[in-house]
Amino acid sequence: SAVQKREIQWQRWSRDIIPELLKPYLQYLQASESLRVVVDSPVDHRSQCLTCVVHPLTICCLEEVEITYCACTPAPIHLMERGLFACSPVAPSLAVDLRVLEFMRRLFVRLTPNTTAWCEALESFLDAQGYQLKSKDNLRRRFSNAYHWYTVLTIHAEDHITGLVHPPQVSEQQGARLQPSDYLCARCPLCFGGDGSQRANADQEDLDCIVCLDACFTQKRTKNPRNSATHDPPNPISTVFIPESEVKAMELFIEKQRSLPPSHHDSSHKPQGDSFEDGMRVPMSVLDGCGDSFHAADEKRKKASTNFFADTGLMALLCRHDHVLWLVNMTSAGEKQHYALVLLKYLFEHLPKTTTVGLLYDIGCQLERSCRKWRLLDEEILSRLKFGISVFHAYGHQWPCQIIYHPRKCVGFGLSDGEGCERLWSSLKMLIPILRVSGYHQRLFVLDKQIRHFDRKAFAALGQWLNKKWTLCRSKKMVALESLHALHIDMKTLREEWAAQVHSQTQPLPRQSKTNGAKLLAHILSLEKSVQDYQSRVDQLEMELVNDRVNDIMDFDLQRTAARSLLSKATKALQQKKSALGVSAQTDLYLLRNNKWLQTQTNAQALKVRIRERLRQRKFELERLEGSSRNSVNGNHLQSHVESSIKRREPAISHLITTYNTLCDELLGMIRLQKAPPGAIPPLPIPTKGIFQLDVDSDIWQDSG
């Protein structure tokens, strides 16, 4: 059958032809000065043995050329000596000039690969010039075949030359790795190259390397009803993808760890109230808040359906210089932790046992929590791993979490932002349409090829990159030193004050008692206002559906489901809080509603929570908008609709800020008129300038008063 014929041809290319083509290809590159000059055709090999035959070969569809060669050597070898690449391993009917294929190879990593359009344009051009394709075979199929295997050959040649220039080094003695692996050194020589002397002389708090981690759900592949896996054999090249077997093994390990009884995790008794979990530096209430924030707002983690997609996305591990270390192909609907953990497992297997690593991840706090709670990573690894959150996703975390995990607040991360993965996804977005319908191995091959292109560009610009970052670092340092000198406070005092602030703002919530019962009542009032806000959001979505203002019904369903989930959760929490109140507490709740100071303070606190949530939702919506890859008319219309919707909600946020600042003024007036409790502190107003950026040092995070 045709499928079996293709599989046999694929095996012959992989096992026989490509390895044999490597030497003549490199020899031709040397003779032609990297394809710059034309090399004279070699003498025919008719006299080498008695099995010589004559094969007619069509060269680039322009003319039929007969060459003689010894049949003991495959035809692609003889064609390579003439600067041509065959379309098949046996009796090829088409050969393409290497310069044409090299041009295509360089072109198709800078724009969306499309051999169909290329071949149609070529046939149209040749037809206009009076050349007719005499063969009945399809040009696109043969031309694409030649281009594919030429690309495989160039990858083999690159790896061969790299192995000659940088031969593998023996880095293990008595089972202990002394240097990062050759693989890591090749991926990023700045992070993992050298002899390690600089890392040995570094400060104790410095990190040896910094990596970032993130997932992308736009790089999906649809399910093929004709089972494309059987028609799509693997390509014989090195890859940055972790094998599926390793990913599956990590998934099973995590399921096993989470199924163990609590006694296996040193947590046989659950602490009462809020507290610190084992090894964590922020309390459980803060971690729960961060988890709720990302689950509710980050809708991209729910965009991939396993009903329609065989592969739902990618997860990448990059170094601080934005070089890809490994990729994982995702097949689940959500961002499961086993993808991240298998990437970390591979990283530490390639590092010495003394190397310290800084990890920046959108939900780094949640990953560390799971690792310590369920012992998903060995303590030896956790002791060398410092978790952080990426800069541009810090707004989704609670303030106590930010002062521990934000890279600008955490020693060792410097100016690394952890957003290298986002830049990678932006660079790969042109591949989304073609990879959506490609075969499994073809998808991985195209991604590997594109990563190699990014590596070449990055290595060529490393000097400029270092100069740019060094200049930026010096300028920021000068500004910071000027600001510190203007304070006229010694560094020791500032560090002590910062340590005191971190200690104070990361303390667990106190257990409820008679002395702080007012806080419980204030929490109930805050929940009531949150329920009203969530209900208004649900009503707004329902009105959009009734008024036929919904462009994307799938996106609308996700938003409505999320809004209803928040409303249901808040309503349930409010009912639980109220049902737990005794008779006296219910009386206090009634009196609290009539206490002007407490009512105003509670309203201001609830309003500030609403402002934060609105700003977070806006940032998440903008992230989805900036990451949009739709180029169709409907996609552009939807994008403009989202933009207008975001703009329409900005005045509402500004109005909330104005209302909050008015409440702050009222509280300040009560303090001046001595109508407030003794020692009361007024909350700080929120400046409207720069509020939509949600910077880590913004006053929106301050909860004083």
List the helices and strands and how they pair.
Blueprint: H1 2-31, E1 53-59, E2 63-69, H2 75-81, E3 84-86, E4 94-97, H3 98-107, H4 115-128, H5 139-165, E5 172-173, E6 176-177, H6 182-187, H7 189-192, H8 197-200, E7 209-216, E8 221-222, H9 244-259, H10 284-297, E9 309-311, E10 313-319, E11 324-330, H11 337-349, E12 357-361, H12 364-374, H13 379-382, E13 385-388, H14 399-405, H15 420-428, H16 432-435, H17 440-460, H18 462-487, H19 491-505, H20 517-546, H21 553-579, H22 583-593, H23 596-626, H24 633-672
Parallel strand pairs: 1-4, 7-12, 12-13
Antiparallel strand pairs: 1-2, 3-4, 5-6, 7-10, 8-9, 10-11
Helix pairs in contact: 1-2, 1-5, 3-5, 4-5, 9-11, 20-21, 20-22, 20-23, 23-24
Describe the 3D structure:
The chain has a five-stranded mixed sheet with strand order 11-10-7-12-13, sandwiched between helices. The chain has helices spanning 2-31, 75-81, 98-107, 115-128, 139-165, 182-187, 189-192, 197-200, 244-259, 284-297, 337-349, 364-374, 379-382, 399-405, 420-428, 432-435, 440-460, 462-487, 491-505, 517-546, 553-579, 583-593, 596-626, 633-672, and strands at 53-59, 63-69, 84-86, 94-97, 172-173, 176-177, 209-216, 221-222, 309-311, 313-319, 324-330, 357-361, 385-388. It is elongated, with a radius of gyration of 31 Å. It has 24 helices and 13 strands.
